[in-house]
Design a protein that fits this description.
alpha/beta; Rossmann fold; six-stranded mixed β-sheet; two-stranded antiparallel ribbon
């Protein structure tokens, strides 16, 4: 038997290897660079497409890649941009986008998230709209999301280490951000991409940008690899009444059973659960 096993290792075709999967959800407002984060994780040398006024991702998008050194597969779920409108329909639209994404994940047999990444753009600044959008997402997704949540500040390819530290300190001391700062239990990270204009001009900054974003990539992947307690989608529904009701309806229309078809969410209000992050 040992000789057979040896021969297969030496000459057998299509050897297999067991791998672990990590599911990463990217969410945020339109044009915050969520798709660029996905590209960065796969290949830090990719130059992003030119900016447009419209959201680049119209539907949830799934992409998996294998980390060869770790026998790990990262499943990246990129979502359409949230909070594109400023009228009364915004909550309905954004809830629909989140539910569409959850339904997409269920169809892909993804039932838990290792990391939920809230993305904001350094270029636009972290303004009151960004903070309010995060507050609404926290209220909708429930407080259980906190232990698997991180904040990623995009378009930061030109920041020096001192600038990053100062920016983090400013965030934590900001009166508005303090309301949600403790929510991100996985921490605050940065992302970026090689600037296409600098590349076309032959700027010396390009190599520095590459080194910086490569460090960002390593830091993000390392935090994803360390998550050993993924968040089940059903646990999100268990602590959010609104999400529970809509998720139950979604699950009843799918073929996958879930524990909320007969049970209700845990009995505490959004305000009570959200106040712990204020």
């Amino acid at each position: 038997m040992r000789s057979i096993e040896r021969d297969f290792k030496l000459y057998g075709k299509y050897p297999t290897k067991q791998v672990e999967h990590k599911n990463i959800l990217l969410i945020g407002r339109t044009r915050t660079g969520k798709s660029t984060i996905k590209s960065l994780l796969i290949d830090p040398t990719v130059i992003p497409n030119e900016l447009t006024l419209k959201s680049g991702t119209r539907d949830p998008h799934f992409q998996a890649f294998h980390l060869q050194d770790n026998d790990m597969v990262l499943n990246i779920i990129d979502t359409p941009g949230l909070f594109e409108h400023s009228n009364n329909e915004v909550d309905i639209r954004d809830n629909d986008i989140i539910l569409k994404t959850i339904g997409f994940c269920i169809n892909m047999e993804i039932t838990k998230f290792h990391a939920i990444c809230f993305c904001v753009s350094l270029a636009a600044g972290i303004n009151q709209e960004d903070i309010r959008s995060i507050e609404l997402l926290i209220e909708y997704l429930g407080p259980e999301t906190s232990k698997n949540a991180c904040l990623i500040i995009t378009r930061s390819e030109s920041l020096e280490e001192g600038q990053r530290k100062r920016l983090k300190n400013e965030l934590m001391e900001d009166a508005c951000f303090k309301k949600i700062g403790t929510f991100f239990k996985l921490g605050v990270y940065f992302s970026g991409a090689i600037n296409g204009d600098d590349l076309n001009r032959g700027s010396d900054n390009v190599y520095h940008q590459f080194c910086t974003i490569s460090d960002y990539r390593e830091q993000l992947i390392e935090v994803f690899l360390k998550v050993n307690d993924p968040l089940p989608i059903e646990a999100m529904a268990a602590t959010s009444k609104k999400f529970c009701e809509e998720y139950r309806s979604l699950s009843q229309n799918s073929q996958r059973p879930n524990q909320f078809q007969n049970n209700s969410y845990q009995t505490f209000s959004h305000k009570q659960s959200f106040d712990q992050y204020r």
